[in-house]
Amino acid sequence: MTSGKKTMTSQSSGRIQTGTAVLAAAALLILFLAAGPRSGIGQEKGPSTPPPEKPKAQWTVESHDRTNFPLVGKHRTLNCTDCHINKVFEGTPTACEACHWERRQDDRYRLRLGMPCAECHTPQSWKKVDPNKWNHETATGFKREGVHQFLDCEDCHGAQGFKALPMDCYSCHAKNYQGATDPNHVQASFPTDCKSCHSTRSWSGASFNHSGFVRQGKHLTAACSDCHKNGVYAGTPSDCASCHINDYNGTTDPNHRAQGYPLECQTCHGTSATGWSHGPRTSHPSRG
Prior knowledge:
Elements (H helix, E strand, L loop, with lengths): L1 H34 L25 H4 L15 H4 L12 H5 L20 E2 L2 E5 L6 H5 L12 H5 L11 H11 L44 H4 L12 H11 L15 H4 L19
Antiparallel strand pairs: 1-2
């Protein structure tokens, strides 16, 4: 009996020890799982996600201003490839003529006026010439006024070159003079010095020095053809009757012709009247 009890006691003790070991192992497993995976031998790292790329800096006009070639005038509106041909940025020339002639052939005059652009032009526009650098009047003696300011060089100089030209009006405007029909300049023997009647702003609105016959009153608003019939200007008489004889003969209240009124209209009507009924005299002149 004693031996059997010892055997049962030994078996019970073994089971207790085994259960304790199982519980300890389970506790360690729970702690391991709770702690999560740790780097160590036998653990492989998974694929890592690359950090997001930083956005590339945008190149702006202001960025270019910080280079050795700040963008001025028209240059600020260009695309990069207008100057950086084939997107080659290194070694781009900065001299005007290196880009506008050697690379782009921009000069339609083919260097007939010289090569250095900056001697005359500004970056704002080819047509905006710096007056402190080049002035037409100073260089040629001809001041560009009125519509001449807006003409293209070739309008006067043609496509052949820039040799000196005569500066009188007719040398350039002969066709305008000969083609004028209202009034006919050739037939009327008008002077060929255009500025004696016209301004440099426009052909219309011409004025003529009418000193041979001072225009007053109604004459100020009369058209040229009212007095100069058939476009004949030379030799037009200046006495009243030569132009107004029909008015004189047709007047009935009073009847000028029957009563022998003088043919000098200004005797009764004056020279500043704007109509026949507004003469300055109220008494009849003596009639012989």
